Queue: 2 jobs
Job 1
Amino acid sequence: MSSQLLARKTGFLLTFEGLDGSGKTTQILRLITWLHGQGLDPLQTRQPGGTETGDRIRALLLDSKSAGLSPHTELAMMFADRAQAIQEVIAPALQSGKLVLCDRFTDSTEAYQGSGRQLGSEIVLQLHNLLCNNLQPDLTILLLPDLQASLARARHRNNRQTGPDEGRFEQEQDAFFHRVYDGYRAIAAREPLRVVAIEGDLTVEQVHAKVITEVGIRLRQTGIIPT
């Protein structure tokens, strides 16, 4: 990856994090509608996925038939996807001054593979520095509703899903997701200036109000939305 490409981004990288079933998709769609109302046209992407190569990696990673992947293989595939997405999509958009809205980024890898798979944070952060030139989001919205409710929604959704099989992680035991949840909370505690955690049993409207408040503050601070 070209270090020159990532030497100085001029856009804004906004990421959403949380367990499957936390409401990320709903909140991202609502935020995009709000951003359009502010005269902004964000580039929306996701991880894994977002590129032709990444979509192939996603299919392997999330398919419930991909049994037997070692934690280190899973970690390597996540970063292969991310490095390609940064090179092909994210970095060029940031260089051109775009607002990039990404569903999951390296925080997911630290929470799922670092904490959930018990590989630790150090290897994740080292790989992010090496393969992603340590590209950091400007703001991360972390959705942390009730853990059991999130799991129930995610498993119900995958049981009735008619599209691609993306239920491999939902087959994990609850102890795995408790580690992921705790991993996310540890990231939020470590990086309070970047990560805004929205916790508790809130309605969709209440979460959306908090999201647009936090995003609006940051975008005004950076001049993307006029004050």
Note: The mean pLDDT is 91.
Job 2
Amino acid sequence: MPTCLHEVVGILNECGPAARVLAGGTDLVVELRSGKIAPRFIVEMKRLSDLPPFIDQIDGCLTISATATMSDIERHETVRDRLPALAEAASVVGSTQIRNRATLAGNVCNASPAADTIPVLAVYGAMIKLLGPNGERLLRVVDFVHGNRKTALATGEVVTAVKIPLPNQPFGAAFARITRRRGVDLATVSVCCGIDKAGMTTFAFGAVSPRPVLLRKANGVLADSPASSDTKALDDLILQASPVTDVRGSAEYRLAMLRVLAERAQQRALERLADGNKNR
């Protein structure tokens, strides 16, 4: 069993696709039990001496280690105050038991189109910190996720942290989603909206395509209440999502729900912007 990150990198570099990393294991265990994957080696991350679970402010970013759980994130004071949309997304990932095990890094690495946290991380400009045989590198989350269960992880690389720049000016963000049923279920559609004091409005749509859809409007027309803002501008953004049809919903249904959720997220983001980016 590895005791430090460099040992993990060595094992992954030597074993390649035959090894899989286990942090929380909430996705990995399901795939193992179903027979979808059958790796020869499982590399445990929870007992590494140099990767304890932590959430800390470092150089203007909130750094969340790869072993920090969704419950840690959901309850963290800085997350709730400065990154409230992330607290919202983390609070709906699976059940309480799942959130006590699942990690943010694992949610990103699993790269499910329905992952709740990925649209939020995209809006906040999050970066994924990787360690591999050639050292460290940082990738934006929108560049890290390549598609359904596909990421930019190279042979021997492991995610060590997620770094989220903390807003240095008023910024409001909110997350909304819809599922087929109440309780534990995957999102049929999810939306995160972020608005800064200059009127830049950013939307990220989840569960509508293999990769997160990130769209921006800089002219301020969407930095107003949904009732009085330019509805055509919002409709034009939503049409760029080009949602898919699958077992959870048709493309037409997703388009309709994107419109509803986008307005809800936009309104809540505006409220938080007015409140000085405080989660109330």
Note: The mean pLDDT is 91.
